[in-house]
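Subject: Protein record for review, amino acid sequence with backbone structure tokens
How to read it: Take the token row as a discrete description of the fold.
Enclosed: The protein record, placed directly beneath this head.
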Amino acid sequence: SAWNCLAKDKGYDVVLIDTAGRMQDNEPLMRALAKLVNLNRPDKVLFVGEALVGNDSVDQLQKFNQAMIDFAGVAEPRTIDGVMLTKFDTIDDKVGAAVSMVYTTGQPVVFVGVGQTYTDIRHLNVKSLVRALLR
């Protein structure tokens, strides 16, 4: 895709395309997102949700995945490859939604956001998550 060529020319390993809060219930926006994914064929599609939302995030994720399938217009539609949870630094021991998202989709929580900038993106520390669950 054009994004891959541009990234390689600039020496970038990663290109993040922020879809600006495409709500899974907004059909025109989800159609556009499914088209974007099919045209660009990204290596990874991550669902980004707020950790603060709790178990509502599981419902959002399921609707998002279903919209990706419904609006893909191809025989083998892409669904998410993983999850990124923002505001993860604000939830203390309320990590059940993260576990539920992994269980529901079979996909990992790849990154968590712990601040306002790209440098605040971290890999999920599974040991810390398990400790919080066992408290």
Summary: Helices lie at 2-10, 27-40, 56-70, 96-105, 126-134. The radius of gyration is 16 Å.
